[in-house]
Amino acid sequence: MAVSVKDVAVRAGVSLGTVSNVLNRPDKVRAATRERVEEAMRDLGFVRNESARQLKAGRSNTAGYIMFDASNPFFTDVASGMEAAAEAAGVSLFLCNSDQRPEREHAYLSRLEQGRVLGILITPVDPSSPMLDQMRERGTPLVIVDRTRDDDDWCSVAVDDELGGRLAVGHLLEGGHRRIAFVGGPAVLGQVRDRRAGAWQALTDAGLAAADLVDVPSDAMGVADGLSAAERIAGMPRATRPTAVFCANDLIALGMLQRSMALGLRIPDDLAIVGYDDIDFAASAAVPLTSVRQPREQLGRAAARLILAELDEGARHQHEHVTFQPELIVRASSDFTVASPRSRKPRRAALT
Amino acid sequence: MAVSVKDVAVRAGVSLGTVSNVLNRPDKVRAATRERVEEAMRDLGFVRNESARQLKAGRSNTAGYIMFDASNPFFTDVASGMEAAAEAAGVSLFLCNSDQRPEREHAYLSRLEQGRVLGILITPVDPSSPMLDQMRERGTPLVIVDRTRDDDDWCSVAVDDELGGRLAVGHLLEGGHRRIAFVGGPAVLGQVRDRRAGAWQALTDAGLAAADLVDVPSDAMGVADGLSAAERIAGMPRATRPTAVFCANDLIALGMLQRSMALGLRIPDDLAIVGYDDIDFAASAAVPLTSVRQPREQLGRAAARLILAELDEGARHQHEHVTFQPELIVRASSDFTVASPRSRKPRRAALT
DNA sequence: TTGTACGCGTTATCAT
DNA sequence: ATGATAACGCGTACAA
């Protein structure tokens, strides 16, 4: 059933080495011979066996991106940037979805390492997982995407999440809000921690007490978590209920928006909402969503570039930390002045 | 640098065969010996070489899903169903994004075949591509997802798109619409063709002329295509402008919604919109979107089930065509009676 | 162009 | 239960 180079060689009446040359150094083979070999390949339906090739080469020509959550458009956009860069470099990129679950992340890491991929891009559930260190030590190039690690032995691309948090809450404070909720979790997640820290920073910078940041923790970062958080907030007594919510990502914010409206809250009059990521769906939400924009495709391209650089430079590679700046996009969900559905031009706000 | 079974054997003071037994038949090894070997593996950082293992085994333990468009949540939800089924069967699933481009699809198909994956799931750009036939003949199990093929030599899972089209346009006709546009493309795409055919069917069943279905072709199936289609429709003279649009998917519909509103059209009063897929974001759109729901995760699980069945049953496998029924979810974008933002309960409509 | 050693884990055989 | 050893799978690269 399986057709090997040997079969091709017999069929074409040449030696095994010649078939290999046709595959890898076609210019070393006389045109007539080459054509005979290629014809034999077509006739027999020869398909190169990557395992055998890799076994010899030591490494595959494939990279993997382990996504935090494939159902979040933010990560598919990041992946799309990577794909573009990988394709340009002739590397195939496989996408793996850890779905925020450490076991799945672990399983994919093992698979990719066992497959001797040339590099792994990952948005880890837990960036401090010792497994990541082990893999680096054993020689697999690894780039951390949309997270950072404290130590310097890592390439990473990230966005300044603390700044993002400051932008978001700074904007809400400017809008006159004094009781602001932060929705996100689990708290161990780097982005959650940093975005929350930025929020807290903006609050104390404005002379407010830390207690004015109402924590509404969530189990994960999906739409469902926003729905349940909305119920908890809507259930608070009006006198102490936050007048604004800063959500750790847009999925949570969209869930929050949907459920708060269903529960009779007016957005932004009763509750202003700010999301994070500025995924495409944020602009077309029931009330267009104010959000902190991250350069998604760029993030992906930068990550791919880093891993390719690490491959080229080998041992004497300098680890690089690329940090992008986020940008606040103001829309109707946080701003009375743009709340009319007819004049929904987003505005960009800078941190003063 | 690279640690092989041989190194492990030396370190543990056992023979090579024993190490192999620990890896593949742990019950054949005395507990004490097993632990010594496992400790040696940990100490040395041994990582099994998949290439070598596959080379011997003939096949890998991996499947791939080639997605039509990873930025469309419909496909990530399908993928999520597959992941669940694959995980349960101990198979890893790699996601590949063809991004609607035939070259990329082709490249990924080759990669996967060369990697001797145990099966390929694919939502093809062109289901009639001869490459698919060749791969089947050469022995790679293949399941077509969200598409069908005319011949019977294929496993496929799909949703009855013609029924979906009938449901959508039947609903608009019931709402009193008589000039209805169909937005989608390219026309060669199976779903586009079938959904359009269903639309046409509903129209002629109602005694209308085929010409009353206004074709607004699009280049692809993304949000951007909806934006430009909205401009073309808004630019038509009011007297002949369609009063309703049926979009071939929700991304187009969301783009359509966003741009039409920006251009001053009221939804649904000036223009009713119906989408397709019922992705999660459809419900939280600026005007909640009426859409034809497909059982996304189920579709993925069924596809994974089929490919696993084909593996088990080997040569005497009966190809199966699983077809699901779509369901119309009525929301404000097509229905005055639910247009108030406070009472946005979706209704389910059946085809009479 | 050809012949052949090589990479590495798996499996089987014979022996202990 | 374990040891020692060799054949195997298949594409690659290099010396001849």
Please tag this protein with its features.
352 residues, alpha/beta, 434 Repressor (Amino-terminal Domain), Rossmann fold, 3 domains, 6-stranded parallel beta sheet, elongated, DNA-binding
Summarize the structure in words:
2 copies of one chain form a homodimer. The first copy, chain A, has 352 residues and is an alpha/beta fold. The first copy, chain A, folds into 3 domains: 5-48, 434 Repressor (Amino-terminal Domain) (Orthogonal Bundle); 60-160 and 296-324, Response regulator (Rossmann fold); 161-294 and 328-349, Response regulator (Rossmann fold), CATH 3.40.50.2300. In chain A, helix 12 links the parallel strand 9 (272-277) and strand 10. In chain A, helix 1 (5-12) crosses helix 3 and helix 5 (73-88) crosses helix 13 (296-313). Chain A has helices spanning 5-12, 16-24, 31-44, 50-57, 73-88, 102-114, 130-137, 161-174, 190-205, 223-234, 250-262, 280-283, 296-313; strands at residues 62-67, 92-97, 119-122, 142-145, 155-159, 180-184, 213-217, 244-247, 272-277, 290-293, 321-324, 327-330, 347-349. Helices cover 43% and strands 17% of the residues of chain A. The first copy, chain A, is built from 13 helices and 13 strands. Chain A has a 7-stranded mixed β-sheet, with helices on both faces. A 6-stranded parallel β-sheet of chain A has the order 2-1-3-4-5-11, with helices on both faces. The longest helix of chain A is centred in the last third of the chain and has 18 residues, at 296-313. At the A-B interface, helix 4, helix 5, strand 2, helix 6 and helix 11 of A face helix 4, helix 5, strand 2, helix 6 and helix 11 of B.
